[in-house]
Write a structure and sequence with these properties.
Blueprint: E1 2-4, E2 7-9, H1 11-38, H2 57-82, H3 86-103, H4 112-140, E3 141-143
Helix pairs in contact: 1-2, 1-4, 2-3, 2-4, 3-4
Amino acid sequence: MVEQLNIVVDWKRLWAGGLATAGVAALIAWLGTLVCRALLDVDVADSAAAFDVTDTFVGNYALTAALFALVATALAHVLSLTTPTPRAFFSWIVGLLTAAAVVLPFTRGDDLAIQVCAAVINLLIGAAIGSLLSTVLSRTVFDRERSWQG
């Protein structure tokens, strides 16, 4: 556990929650792409993925979502050590970045159906990252002075 003043961070559980969140985010990217392709006959644009590491767009999109979840975990860890209300700041930052990720597909020259699918998938990924890691923060960051938690 990391301790600063009266704040205690159970970093092992925080990062375990971050890894689990990365898995969920990757699954959302994979399932969202699958739904768009199989049910809606919409091929989500390859530009939605930030990395070109794997041979498939779905793999790159899932990897991108997982990486963003891990970056969000690092942000949550830093905020928990430096700010008086880490969950509030975390929620605002993730919420604003999610809003940007939802708008981003509409800045590209793709068809409207592709843009909408990418925006919805990005919204679901951002909502999952924000809600899951906010809950993880509530279970892994303790203020000894103000909390009933030991």
